[in-house]
Structure formats: structure tokens, C-alpha cells
Amino acid sequence: MSCNYADGLSAYDDKGILGAPESFDSDEVVTEKCQELADLIKKSGHVVLHTGAGISTSAGIPDFRGPKGVWTLEEKGEKPDFNVSFDEARPTKTHMAIISLIESGYVQFVVSQNIDGLHLKSGLDRKYLSELHGNIYIEQCKKCRRQFVSPSAVETVGQKSLKRPCKSSMDSKGRSCRSGILHDNVLDWEHDLPENDLEMGLMHSTIADLNIALGTTLQIVPSGDLPLKNLKRGGKFAICNLQPTKHDKKANLIISSYVDVVLSKVCKLLGVEIPEYSESSDPTKQSKPIEWTIPTNNVNIFHKKYRTHVKDSKIESKAKKTKYK
């Protein structure tokens, strides 16, 4: 449960703005804005989604800073009145829509602050995902740094020992890790973000033609600032959230509605069918150990694309300045 996750973290006073009022656009306005968002997606060659706790509330997992969020209620000495276990929770309409948007080529990457494992359960391939704050279903070896999918939510948070040996000895490729011990990979306050996840998230966000924030108030840094990284190069930035966010003034489009509603409408406008969740595509339901490590080679290959893009952007910017002198 997200309550148990929050309880497992160290004490931390600065949790940001809590309990800000939610606002809702009218049905007519939502329809108009969804058409605008669909048009922005169509015009963009590289779209990155930035997902927060708000995309998982319809799965029964409370958010943290909403009017009934975990930390909002914590200040009042209360607990959320809905709170399913992580193992009971299933991917939402939004999680499954993201799968379709990626498979159809409309979205290129996802940067997530969520630790609930619902992107993993939806069947989203690791190569399309940065998990900046960890994943409650991932066990990571402290020695070899490889990650493996657990069939159930791990017992601890804060990168603590699970007192289990590294699973790499079971690797079909013959690689082994002697004496390695598995730990959870869920960050506590003040932990450094995972290097490869952060690097991939930063690079994709920077070269994006369009960054879209879904279900997040963008208060936590550095994750909350990543959607702004494309603005200097003329990129666009859209937000779908019920509460005001830290970066509303910099957004080209803000939709105040449930994310499930927005992505359902956008997918329909794009002619994309949203699949149902299937256990056959859920790595947590498979019998054999599945690795979840970001391959270093993937990072190195994307580095080249990133450097080329940034170099070309600088040349184009310099040419424009010369032209208009």
C-alpha cells in the first residue's frame, strides 16, 4: 500500500504544497483541449510523458499531495479511506493507453516518479521507461547493480537489504554474481537518483518536441523540472492535472481533468485502441526471473543521438540569429 510505503520513509518535513484545491474543466473545454493535445502529438517527432501518482488513483492507490493524499491527511493525523495493496492494484486506463501510444509511434519515452510498479505490470518495455524514484517490484543487487522483477511487492523501502542472494546465478547467459545481496531499489528522501534512469530521462526530455506531464504537481526535483528541458530549443509543454502545478505558467496547454478521461479521448482522436490489462504481459506474473536493468549499451547509443540533436540545435539557433541580425 502507498500508506505503508510512505510510512517506511525517513522523517522529512518539506513535502511541498499539500492539499491544493482541484479544478475541473467543463466537458466541452476538455474535448477542445484534447483535440489540441492530439494535434500537438501529431506534429511532434519525439514525445515524452512524465507520470506521477495521479495516474494510479483510479487503481485504488492514493496520491500524496491531493486533497485526500497520503501526506495531506498525514498532517491531520488521518489515513486515506481507500488504499489497495500494491499486489492487488492493476494498471489503469492511462497505463494501458501509454502502451498503445508507444506501440503506435506517437510516444517515444516515459519518465515516471511512481514506485507502484503499474508501468511494469502494464507490459511497458524497460527501454521506454525511466523510473526515477525506484519500483516496489524490483530487487537490485548491491554488488553487480543488476535489477530483477519480484513476483510481489518487496518488503522494504529505502534501498534496504532483502537478505536474498543475487539472481544472476540463474542467468541463462551464464553470468553470475558471487556473494551479491539483493536490496529494494525504492529511494528514500535525499537518496541519489539512479544514474542511468536519470540520464535517459534527461536526454529524452531535452530533445523532446513535446513533454506531457500526467498526474503530477511537479514539485519534486529534479524530476519535476525535466519537462522544461526542451523549452529553450522551442519544444512544447503540456500538463494534465487536477491541481495547479509548479510550472503552470510555462505550459503551452493545461487540461484540468482526470488523466484516464484525457488519454481515452486523445487515443480515440489518434485512432489508437487501448488494450485491456493481461497477466500474460505482466512480468510479475511470469514463472522465470526477469531482468529489469537498463542496458548500458542503450544509454551509450542514445547519448550519440542526444549529442547530435543538441549540436544540430545549436547550429540552427546560431543560423537564425545570424539571419535576423
Task: Label this structure with key terms.
single chain, 325 residues, alpha/beta, Rossmann fold, Rubrerythrin, domain 2, 2 domains, six-stranded parallel beta sheet, four-stranded antiparallel beta sheet, disordered C terminus, metal-binding, NAD+ binding
Subunit organisation of the chains: single chain
Fraction in beta strands: 5-15%
The percent of residues in helical segments reads 25-40%
Could you name the CATH class of the largest domain?
Alpha Beta
CATH fold name of the largest domain, please? Rossmann fold
Q: How are the secondary structure elements laid out?
A:
Elements (H helix, E strand, L loop, with lengths): L1 H7 L18 H17 L3 E5 L18 H5 L18 H11 L5 E4 L5 H5 L6 E3 L6 E4 L5 E3 L11 E5 L15 E4 L10 H13 L2 E5 L21 E5 L12 E3 L3 H12 L25 H28 L2
Parallel strand pairs: 1-2, 1-8, 2-3, 8-9, 9-10
Antiparallel strand pairs: 4-5, 4-7, 6-7
Helix pairs in contact: 2-7, 4-7, 6-8
Family: Belongs to the sirtuin family. Class IV subfamily.
GO molecular function: histone H3K9 deacetylase activity, NAD-dependent; metal ion binding; NAD+ binding; transcription corepressor activity
GO biological process, one term: negative regulation of transcription by RNA polymerase II
